UniProtKB/TrEMBL annotation:
This is DUF8019 domain-containing protein. It comes from the Eukaryota. Pfam families: DUF8019, Laminin_G_3. Residues 254-332 form the DUF8019 domain. InterPro entries: DUF8019 (IPR058332).
Length: 335
């Protein structure tokens, strides 16, 4: 069972010590207290904050064997890992990594490559992929469009992959989360559910090291990476949302992308029980901001909005089965 969670900058590297108060059940990340009371701290089996010479601050003390350059940390506090696209870090294999359920990190893409690049991969040989996280290229020099995330695992069936519907944003910190549990992979971007895949067979584990920022077979992206963490317990939507804290954001557990390229009737049925097609007032209360941040506008600029009464004029647009847009579903407890 495996869960994956993925996690401006100035040119100044901070060497200041942590100033957080020591509270039970909390971690100090970038001089900010992070509430981790929802997860036992002994479940952390890998923690690289890149503020202490790339040491593993978890109970395993499995330090990076091939260090990388350092960059500014998230929020311009502390350090992050800097990857140029050609050099990568190596985290040696540990037997407990077979029990990894969650991997967490933040990424800050700096520029685009011509093809997909490796953010993270565990492998001893080129045919092993469990797990692998790739970043696909952006469409232009401004890092607009593209930027999709792909997750690959090796199974007894074949290598199986999940591609994101949305995308990460260039020159901005992005949080990524993949939950691989049993035969299902769920992908989250910035704490919001993005896509899901049902596997044909169980993932095959391997004895290889973790490669970060590239691997021996493929180049990596040009990016900063911060707060890489491994856990041996699964995270659900609630825990994932606690790892993502953007000031002033709408609660990201209250909406998700229902469908893209669907007509109005399909948009209504894309929302599961306890959810509904978002109304215009809900969409304009902050959800559009998240749609842009998560790359949903790459799919379309038009979104369906819920209407309780459809007059003759609206019917031309809403009831035409050939008219397609994207749909965002809101929780019935949105307000």
């Amino acid at each position: 069972m495996l869960n994956l969670i993925f996690i401006l900058v100035s040119g100044i590297h901070s060497e200041e010590p942590e100033v957080c108060y020591k509270l039970e059940g909390h971690l100090c990340v970038n001089n900010q207290i992070v509430d981790m009371t929802f997860v036992p701290l002994d479940s952390i089996i890998g923690l690289w904050r890149f503020d202490k010479n790339q040491m593993d601050d978890s109970q395993l003390l499995n330090h990076i064997s091939q260090p990388c350059e350092l960059g500014p940390g998230r929020g311009a506090v502390g350090n992050s890992a800097y990857y140029s696209g050609e050099q990568y870090s190596i985290i040696p294999h540990h037997d407990q990594y077979h029990e990894i359920v969650t991997i967490s990190m933040w990424i800050y893409p700096l520029s685009s490559q011509q093809s997909f690049t490796t953010i993270l991969r565990k492998a001893l040989k080129s045919t092993e992929y469990t797990p692998t996280i790739l970043l696909w290229p952006f469409h232009d020099e401004a890092n607009v469009g593209g930027g999709q995330i792909e997750v690959i695992v090796s199974t007894s069936y074949d290598k199986e992959n999940l591609r994101s519907k949305g995308s990460v944003t260039g020159r901005k910190w992005n949080h990524l989360a993949i939950v691989l549990q049993g035969l299902s992979i769920d992908l989250y971007i910035n704490g919001i559910h993005d896509n899901v895949l049902s596997l044909k067979a169980r993932p095959l584990k391997n004895e290889g090291p973790f490669y970060v920022g590239g691997d021996p077979w493929f180049n990596g992206p040009l990016l900063y990476l911060d707060d890489l963490t491994f856990y041996n317990i699964p995270f659900l939507q609630l825990e994932i949302s606690k790892l993502v804290n953007f000031p002033g954001q709408v609660n990201n557990r209250l909406f998700y992308l229902g469908c893209d390229g669907c007509n109005y009737h399909q948009s209504l049925s894309s929302c599961k029980q306890g959810w509904h097609l978002c109304s215009l007032s809900e969409l304009t209360s902050g959800i559009y901001m998240h749609a842009r941040q998560n790359g949903w506008l790459r799919l379309t600029k038009d979104f369906w909005s819920r209407v309780d009464e459809i007059d003759e004029e609206l019917a031309k647009n809403y009831l035409d089965p050939q008219k397609t847009k994207a749909a965002i579903c809101c929780s019935d407890s949105f307000y």
